[in-house]
Amino acid sequence: MADFYGSIIIEKPLEEVFEYASSMEHAPKYMPAVNRMERLTWDEIGVGSKFRETRWIRGKEVEAEVEIIKFEPNQSFSTKTNSNGLVTIYEYNFDEIVEGTQVQFKAYVQTKGFMMKLTKGLLVKMLRAEEDGHLRNLKELLEDHQ
After folding, report:
1. Could you tell me which of 61, 55, 63, 58 has the C-alpha nearest to residue 32?
2. Domain range 4-144, CATH architecture
3. Among 72, 83, 71, 74, which Cα is nearest to 41's?
4. pLDDT in tens, the chain (146 residues)
């Protein structure tokens, strides 16, 4: 079961929405907590592609490696981040509908180590707050570029 999730309809073609969202370099434009996303692998984007993410967490700049662990063009992709015992998996699914594209997002949070397990609830709450609105931001960004 997902720790948090969201869904939105973007009035743009499926291919355009998937292409933009799966190009991780765009994340800082619609994910407020992400400052930079640097590509670490230069092959075609897909399973195994890696990026270095820099984000603000509680007033500190923190880096983590993001890896694409699932990639089905124009259908879905998932990323995995492991940062000091906090593992997050973000799953995005895309469906073509009459209005454009429905994007569904699910986040799974795993903790490793005694202290991380004790604070999992707080960590989930913090991540949810950081990611809140990122689908709305993606929608606004894509629909404004007509």
Report:
1. 55
2. 2-Layer Sandwich (3.30)
3. 71
4. 888 999 999 999 999 999 999 999 999 999 988 999 999 998 899 999 999 999 877 778 889 999 999 999 999 999 999 887 789 999 999 999 999 999 999 999 998 877 777 777 888 788 887 777 899 999 999 998 65
Q: 31 and 137 in contact (C-beta within 8 Å)?
A: yes
Q: Which amino acid is at 31?
A: M
For 96, the token pair is 């073509």
Tokens of 57: 């967490």
Q: Which of 93, 89, 85, 67 is nearest to 7 (CA)?
A: 93
DSSP secondary structure string for all residues of the chain: --SEEEEEEESS-HHHHHHHHHSGGGHHHH-TTEEEEEE---S-SSTT-EEEEEEEETTEEEEEEEEEEEEETTTEEEEEEEETTEEEEEEEEEEEETTEEEEEEEEEEEE-SHHHHHTHHHHHHHHHHHHTTHHHHHHHHHHH--
